[in-house]
Design the sequence.
């Protein structure tokens, strides 16, 4: 009665642990029934195997020895436009599954049904899955990656430094920076309205390269990797290669319009001097993105627009993530900024009054330390700079005026003024923030 819950009180159940029924999921069924063909057949026919789980368990499904009917059901789901779009999987996610299929050729299976399958039958099954994934990755590039609007210039570093091992994970097999960069190039070709690729190394630039997308993913990667190596040799052996500065001078003088410029390299450099002139002569708002794939961490660095030599559309991305293309697309289209600017209109907010000369704080509130409320402000520094200033100059002073009679004081803590350069470079930002909060 006191708890006001429906039902009768069963005193015999008091103090006993209640066991929640085991849910019916593909993980629990595999744990209970084992990794075998009958289990996979039951999961697939009952539609209890989600898209991502199906993609990541292709090796187990194939090697378990399921029949042709199950293979067709799996392939139909993986290549279905509706299922690919609903899964929201990025194209990079399909490479690890493709690599699994490539590694299964000639590999004995864990089940007799697969191990005893003739080689030509195994090859036929694997080829059908590869064709299925080829279709799926193109659908993912079209439906799950926002298009890069306008004309794109992609500068691809083809030097020997691209042969180093890439620290990015999620590709199934160990990949070189050249291979990962090639895959990103393929995605740019699929997702951009117009893409022009230029190979370069320390010696110069190779222009006029024609690269056709399409076909199998790994086959395209292999061809692209070979093309980039050949371009590296051609530039190095050339008696008079075009320099990067001459290339930019040419496109600037001819006023070739690009909306986005992407440079992919283990160590990005060399754009700062030439893009300034390009912005003056051709496109003042060109988005310049440098992608440094030789980093174990994935993060973005935005140049400070308050510095005279910097521009708000200069971005450096480190490491690798399948979200990079989406970020570039949204940043290039102005979608991120427009969403922020549309908040006032969406919620019908009135414009803020002019800032007060200074914040008025009750003298009594200053003396009562036990009633000081510290308001910790945390957000991205550049994008929300105006909001932070309005919060400090307008909102908090007005709240303090209302709290005078209550003897409260709100004290703002904004770490824009408390984080030193040494703390930022030595990865002590989080520790400093936690100290302030505590």
Sequence:
């Amino acid at each position: 009665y006191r708890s006001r819950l429906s039902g009768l009180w069963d005193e015999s159940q008091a103090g006993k642990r209640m066991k929640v029924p085991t849910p019916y999921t593909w993980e629990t069924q595999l744990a209970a029934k084992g990794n075998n063909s009958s289990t996979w057949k039951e999961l697939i026919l009952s539609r209890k195997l989600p898209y991502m789980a199906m993609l990541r368990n292709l090796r187990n499904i194939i090697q378990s020895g399921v029949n042709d009917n199950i293979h067709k059901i799996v392939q139909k789901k993986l290549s279905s436009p509706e299922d690919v779009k609903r899964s929201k999987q990025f194209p990079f996610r399909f490479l690890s599954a493709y690599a699994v299929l490539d590694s299964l050729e000639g590999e004995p299976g864990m089940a007799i049904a697969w191990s005893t399958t003739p080689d030509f039958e195994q090859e036929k099954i694997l080829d059908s899955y590869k064709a299925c994934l080829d279709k799926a990755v193109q659908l993912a590039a079209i439906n799950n990656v926002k298009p890069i609007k306008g004309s794109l210039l992609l500068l691809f570093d083809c030097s020997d430094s691209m042969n180093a091992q890439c620290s990015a994970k999620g590709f199934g097999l160990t990949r070189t920076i050249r291979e990962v960069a090639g895959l990103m190039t393929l995605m740019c070709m699929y997702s951009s309205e117009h893409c022009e690729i230029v190979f370069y190394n320390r010696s110069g630039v190779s222009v006029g390269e024609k690269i056709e997308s399409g076909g199998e993913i790994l086959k395209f990667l292999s061809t692209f990797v070979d093309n980039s190596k050949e371009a590296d040799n051609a530039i190095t052996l050339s008696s008079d290669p075009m320099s990067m500065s001459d290339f930019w001078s040419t496109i600037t003088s001819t006023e070739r319009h690009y909306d986005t410029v992407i440079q992919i390299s283990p160590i990005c450099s060399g754009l700062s001097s030439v893009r300034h002139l390009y912005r003056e002569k051709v496109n003042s708002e060109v988005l310049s993105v440098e992608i440094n794939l030789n980093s174990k961490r994935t993060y973005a660095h935005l140049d400070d627009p308050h510095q005279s030599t910097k521009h708000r559309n200069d971005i450096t991305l480190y490491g690798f993530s399948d979200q990079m293309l989406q970020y570039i697309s949204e940043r290039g289209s102005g979608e991120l900024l427009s969403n922020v600017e549309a908040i006032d209109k969406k919620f019908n907010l009135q414009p803020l009054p002019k800032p007060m000369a200074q914040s008025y704080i009750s003298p009594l509130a200053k003396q009562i330390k036990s009633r000081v409320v510290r308001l910790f402000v945390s957000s991205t520094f550049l994008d929300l700079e105006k909001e932070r200033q309005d919060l400090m100059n307008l909102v908090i002073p007005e709240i303090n005026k209302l709290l005078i009679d209550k003897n409260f004081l709100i004290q703002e803590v904004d770490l824009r003024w408390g984080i030193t350069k040494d703390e930022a470079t030595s990865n002590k930002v989080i520790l400093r923030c936690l100290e302030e909060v505590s």
